[in-house]
UniProtKB/TrEMBL annotation:
Catalysed transformations (reactions): a neolactoside IV(3)-alpha-GalNAc,IV(2)-alpha-Fuc-nLc4Cer(d18:0) + H2O = a neolactoside IV(2)-alpha-Fuc-nLc4Cer(d18:0) + N-acetyl-alpha-D-galactosamine; a neolactoside IV(3)-alpha-GalNAc,IV(2)-alpha-Fuc-nLc4Cer(d18:1(4E)) + H2O = a neolactoside IV(2)-alpha-Fuc-nLc4Cer(d18:1(4E)) + N-acetyl-alpha-D-galactosamine; a globoside IV3GalNAc-Gb4Cer + H2O = N-acetyl-alpha-D-galactosamine + a globoside Gb4Cer; Cleavage of non-reducing alpha-(1->3)-N-acetylgalactosamine residues from human blood group A and AB mucin glycoproteins, Forssman hapten and blood group A lacto series glycolipids
Protein name in the entry: Alpha-galactosidase
Keyword match Glycoprotein: yes
Record's subunit section: Homodimer.
Native source organism of the sequence: Melospiza melodia
Database matches in PANTHER family: ALPHA-GALACTOSIDASE/ALPHA-N-ACETYLGALACTOSAMINIDASE, ALPHA-N-ACETYLGALACTOSAMINIDASE
GO annotation terms (biological process): glycolipid catabolic process; glycoside catabolic process; oligosaccharide metabolic process
Enzyme Commission number, as recorded: 3.2.1.-
Family: Belongs to the glycosyl hydrolase 27 family.
Annotated Gene Ontology cellular component terms: lysosome; membrane
Molecular function as annotated in GO: alpha-galactosidase activity; alpha-N-acetylgalactosaminidase activity
Record localization: Lysosome
Length: 431
């Protein structure tokens, strides 16, 4: 068998010359903070020094992650997005930060971040320009830029795809993976490649993508609205048969940033985004002002059980398993130690809805017994049997999320097949 496997690996290596080495990073979905959704490309530091893209903003967010309980929960990346650089490369052709907004330089920023037990992410764009009009990374700059980022002490790279062709992307994204690996510095690699190719086969080959990138943006940028969150949820779960098998330790689908704590989501909608991103095994990259975040938003984002579920070592992305005419949807994520996460989500806009079902109807194994914990309320209910009917009351555009631990399992072992379609054959992983 070992011989057959090594033969297959060799065949793959020959067939896919662009395959990058496994870098051993992002074994669970990356967590941290990212500037884009909240602070965009605000470069007017004269009029708005507090909120412009400058080293000060990143120093202050690093302080917040380190001092306000975020780092201990796993939020470790401080990620710069577009508009950090000068408008031109220097005389040696190197990317340089804007000298007015980043007078200390990126290496000093990385040192500051590292001194607080955090990691620094940076943004590049495979193309002539970044999306914001700053210098891009064309194919001839790939190696040089990877070396620059490594020399600065960068820990993650998001590589966008504005101002490049499909052909350039097909060459450049794998090329950057190789270049990052060649630096010898561990750098998590986030690709926007599939988002520029429509996110679906045949244009996107998720098998190859998983060999090249640690995470990737598949779909549109998130905006500060519930409508935007719903459009992302719809796209990801409509296409779950393609997307769900692609995710796993070291390679994740990225539905984009968490906008909890901003302006567009209600309390219920904020809880829904957190629960749905967690069930998707999505990176948890907040994009909000951590200096002024409300206690209620902070409580959602710092929910320990939620984070434990998101960071589950099995790394299986969840699926939507029920879509009711009543506009209630149920999502299931299999977890390690035979546990599961269930999310009951209401798209209703009228009033709280009482939804009645059983674990048997959700295809859990017969004769099993579970201890159930409500992820947001914290309340524990013991000894729920698969056959027992139960009811949950779900608020409009809200969720009820459960963490189920097995108390007693049937003798027959159950296993989840990653590629299995939803429906009768889809069971939680009981390993």
């Amino acid at each position: 068998e070992a011989v057959a496997l090594s033969g297959l690996a060799l065949a793959l290596a020959v067939a896919l010359p662009c395959v990058a080495l496994e870098n051993g990073l992002a074994r669970t979905p990356p967590m941290g903070w990212m500037s884009w959704e909240r602070f965009r490309c605000n470069v007017d530091c004269q009029a708005d020094p507090h909120n412009c893209i400058s080293e000060q903003l990143f120093f202050e967010m690093a302080d917040r992650l380190a001092e306000d309980g975020w780092r201990e929960l796993g939020y470790e990346y401080i990620n710069m997005d577009d508009c950090w650089s000068a408008k031109q490369r220097d005389a040696a052709g190197q990317l340089v930060p804007d000298p007015k907004r980043f007078p200390s330089g990126i290496k000093a920023l990385a040192d500051y971040v590292h001194a607080r037990g955090l990691k620094l992410g940076i943004y590049g764009d495979l193309g002539v320009f970044t999306c914001g009009g700053y210098p891009g990374t064309t194919l001839e700059n790939v190696k040089q830029d990877a070396q620059t980022f490594a020399a600065w002490g960068v820990d993650m790279l998001k590589l966008d795809g504005c101002y490049s062709s499909a052909e350039e992307q097909a060459k450049g994204y794998p090329e950057m993976a190789r270049a990052l690996n060649a630096t010898g510095r561990p750098i998590v690699y986030s690709c926007s490649w599939p988002a520029y190719q429509g996110g679906l086969p045949p244009k996107v080959n998720y098998t190859i993508l998983a060999e090249i990138c640690n995470l990737w943006r598949n779909y549109d940028d998130i905006q500060d609205s519930w409508e935007s969150v719903l459009s992302i949820v719809d796209w990801f779960f409509t296409n779950q048969d393609v997307l769900q098998p692609a995710a796993g330790p070291g390679h994740w689908n990225d539905p984009d940033m968490l906008i909890i704590g901003n302006f567009g989501l209600s309390f219920e909608q904020s809880r829904s985004q957190m629960a749905l991103w967690t069930v998707m095994a999505a990176p948890l990259l907040m994009s909000t002002d951590l200096r002024t975040i409300s206690p209620s938003a902070k409580e959602i984002l710092q929910n320990r059980l939620m984070i434990q579920i998101n960071q589950d070592p099995l790394g299986i992305q969840g699926r939507r398993i029920v879509k009711e005419k009543s506009q209630i949807e149920v999502f299931l994520r299999p977890l390690s130690r035979a546990a599961s996460a269930l999310v009951f989500f209401s798209r209703r806009t009228d009033m709280p809805f009482r939804y009645t079902t059983s674990l048997a109807k959700l295809h859990f194994p017969e004769d099993a017994v579970y201890e159930v914990q409500d992820v947001y309320v914290g309340k524990i209910v013991g000894a729920l049997r698969t056959a027992d009917n139960f009811s949950v009351v779900i608020n409009p555009s809200g969720v009820v999320m459960w963490y189920l631990r097995p108390m007693a399992l049937p003798l027959q072992p159950w296993h989840v097949a990653r590629q299995q379609a939803p429906g009768e054959g889809f069971h939680p992983a009981l390993l």
